[in-house]
Amino acid sequence: MNPRTMNPRYAWLRQLTAFGILLLIWEAAGRADMLNPLFMPSPSRIGSALYELFSDGRIWPHLEATFTAALGGLMLGLVAGIMLGILGAMVPLIAELLEPVMTLLNAIPRVILAPLFVIWLGIGLASKIALAFILVAVLIFFTVFTGIRQVDQRLVERIITLGGGRWALVRHVYLPSVTAWILGNMKVAVGFAFTGAVVGEFVAATSGLGYLLSFAQSTYNSALMLALVLLIMVVVLLIFAIAGRLEKYLLRWH
Amino acid sequence: MSVVGPSGSGKSSLLRAAIGLQQPLAGTVEPEVAPAEIGMLFQDDALLPWRTARDNVALGLSFRNVPRKSALVQADYWLDRVGLASFEHRYPRHLSGGQRKRVALAQVLALTPKLLLMDEPFASLDAIVRARVVQDVATLVEEEQISVLLVTHDLEEAIGLSDSIYLLSQGPRARITQHYQVPLPRPRDPVRARMQPAFAPLYDRLWNDLSNAVGPNPRAEAAE
After folding, report:
1. What 3-state class would DSSP assign to A40?
2. Looking at the complex, does the CB of residue B111 fall below 8 Å from at least one CB of chain A?
3. Would you call B51 and A165 a contact, using CB atoms and an 8 Å cutoff?
4. Does B112 touch chain A (CB under 8 A)?
């Protein structure tokens, strides 16, 4: 098909149709015993596992646990990342001390800290929040730190020549610049927060989507595992959509 | 008044020192007007991208504690004066280069400066837009009786806009080597100034002096 004749407005319809066809083939292959249900359950089995999770209400405490850990880590990570980023950009001594630590933390896959947090903070909520926090805080630190250092100096000079002082620079140049940088990385931060929460629960927990995943793995329940993967994808996409709306509104000048 | 000179002669530094953006390496800058009465128009319009045209113009007024309502009324007035009456709610990204330059001009004029420093403010505009903006700037500063110190590479622009022109020598440690009076009558259309008989001889003199200040062309020398 000539790509020029394809209307980009209906791309979603074509994608949805292709996905639907794939599901139908998958389902047909499952029903024809061409796929081992132990490894690759059919879409209808995954759907019924998902339905069961919601119908008996079993899922809600787990969703609540994951959401609490992810959003708690996200909020704390944002606050700490912003504060440390501002301090680092403004105070050279703090930048000198913080930058190597943050660079090191940024260089390693930070989820490897999960077992350590379990030892330090136990298998409760705190260790999951800590992992989500560290993932988000490092990202936001670099976002703010770099954002402040790369503020357009022409805007700074403009404010000075118009008679603005230090507070005017913070209010009219630095804060909006940094906000734009943070909002630009918000989706990544949300993804990191959920990664931290789920991986933390996967390592050791008594509730949460990660805990359910671990349970499904230990019982070889592929249908439940894929249902949970689907659920996590939907949840993150929903939060991405909210973050996207917020970004679009706050960066409407962009 | 214009200042022309080779690249690196310190023309921009002179303006930056005059408005306090940098300290001179030696000597002092003693403007006869108060710092608050000096405005500056940069080569880049440097408008805050997250503020509308109206809010950008009102910005300097808010630094002078003008109440917001009054600042917005004044912003609308100045936007009207620069020909952007219906663009007040647009963000800089949604304005053309010429329109952004006009907003930057309104932003400076709203502070009613007595001295306006202009650092190659029209360099980034294309020919037609540039001609129109230059004409409007000339009209507005004449109407508002604002003294202008213009730094430019463009000799036509310097002659068209100024009553006197200073030539700087090659830097570092550049100094004023020539001073020219522009014998063109006012009121004057800066774009059509070149049609006047007195334009060509002055342009020729300026061009020769500036060429001498820059030094011989290395390619021409190599060819010899």
Report:
1. coil
2. yes
3. no
4. no
Give B90's pLDDT tier (boundaries 50, 70, 90): very high
CB burial class (10 A; 0-12, 13-18, 19+) of residue B167? Answer: buried
Give phi and psi for A153, each to the nearest 5. Answer: -65, -25
Which residue is closest to B104 within chain A, CA to CA? Answer: A158
Half-sphere exposure (Cβ direction) of A32: Cα atoms closer than 13 Å? 7
Domain annotation covers residue A188: yes
- Statement to judge: residues A86 and A207 lie in one domain: yes
Average pLDDT over all residues of chain B:
89
Q: Could you tell me if A160 and A232 lie in one domain? A: yes
The reply to whether A15 and A129 lie within a common domain is no
Residues A142 and A190 in one domain: yes
**Domain encompassing residue A71:** 53-250
The reply to whether A45 falls in a domain is no
Domain boundaries defined on chain B: 1-33+115-216, 46-113
At residue B220, the pLDDT reads 60
Give the gap in angstroms from C-alpha B141 to the nearest C-alpha of chain A: 18
User: Of the spans A184-188, A249-253, B76-80, which averages the highest pLDDT?
Assistant: B76-80
Provide ipTM, 2 decimals: 0.86
pLDDT-based confidence at residue A157 (cuts at 50, 70, 90): very high
Alpha-carbon gap, residue A231 to A79, rounded angstroms: 28
- d(Cα A104, Cα B76) in Å, to the nearest integer? 52
Which H or E element spans position B115?
strand B115-119
Measured in angstroms, the CA of B125 and the nearest CA of chain A are apart by 18
Q: What is the total count of domains within chain A? A: 2
CATH of the structural domain B1-33+115-216, one choice from 3.50.50.60, 3.10.20.310, 3.40.390.30, 3.40.50.300:
3.40.50.300
Please give the mean pLDDT across all residues of chain A. 90
The predicted-structure confidence for B128-173, as pLDDT tens digits, reads as follows 888 888 888 888 988 899 999 999 988 998 999 999 999 998 877 8
Distance from CA of A204 to the nearest CA of B (A): 45
Pairing of strands B164-168, B176-181: antiparallel
At residue B62, does pLDDT exceed 70? yes
pLDDT class of B33 with cuts at 50, 70, 90: confident
Which residues lie closer than 8 Å to A144 by C-beta, 6 or more apart? A81, A82, A84, A85, A86, A88, A89, A178, A181, A182
pLDDT tens for A211-244 read: 999 999 999 999 999 999 999 889 888 888 888 8
Shared domain check, A12 and A99: no
